[in-house]
Amino acid sequence: MESMTKKQKAILDYMKSHVSQHSYWPSIRDIQAKFRFASTNAVFGHLQALERKGFLQRIPGAARAYKIVPEAVEDLSEMVIRYEGPGEEAVPLTSIPLMGSIAAGFPDYTESSGVLASMQAPLTEGSRRRPPQSFALRVRGDSMIDANINDGDTVIIEPGSPKHGDIVAALIDGETTLKRLIKQGSKTYLKAENKNYPELYPVTELVIQGIAKSVVRSI
After folding, report:
1. Cα distance between residue 149 and residue 155, in whole Å
2. Is 76 helix (H, G, I), strand (E, B) or coil?
3. Active site members
4. CA-CA distance, 46 to 143, in Å (whole number)?
5. Which CATH code, of 3.30.300.350, 1.10.1240.10, 1.10.10.10, 2.30.30.100, is assigned to 6-76?
6. What is the rounded average pLDDT of the residues 194-207?
7. For the whole model, what pTM was predicted?
8. I want to staple 192 with a disulfide (CB 3.0 to 4.6 A). Which of 70, 152, 197, 212 is the partner?
9. pLDDT tens profile 22-36
């Protein structure tokens, strides 16, 4: 591999440290704030350089999404996050992939960075298994607190056709967020469950990535 600059190494070390502590990659804005870059373009420039030098890999089919190559993340390759139930009488658990984080605030450019770990999640009542495309995302932000989804919670996302009122993981104009889907006549938009956040209307596109079916909370 081509050698990194000191700044590039610091960014890569920060990414590895962040995922070790929080179980998800830092967002572009996290990196911008950490290193006091004037814009997110500077962050993308460093990420592209790390990709070119072989330390990061772009996630196929996902814009602006990267993962650390296995050689650079050996210390995290066996990381497993487990849901600790209240005892042997706990609801049945199933293993699903933890795919990173999602903004529950204003949308940002954070996207799935591939499978970061696996985690044990409770099955919904009456279910024997979850759809194979199910995945988990760690919540960042407080825009869904009135729906009892808090910063640091983990939401379980399942595929499906969303209905009016469903809470969804969505890509709106290229940025990701967790919000309630509202369908009113010909209008479809996203609504926060916190009066301090505005409704979000797509300018060019609104893509639903999955429906939030349950929440796992750390105690």
Report:
1. 8
2. helix
3. 143, 179
4. 30
5. 1.10.10.10
6. 92
7. 0.54
8. 197
9. 766 777 788 888 898
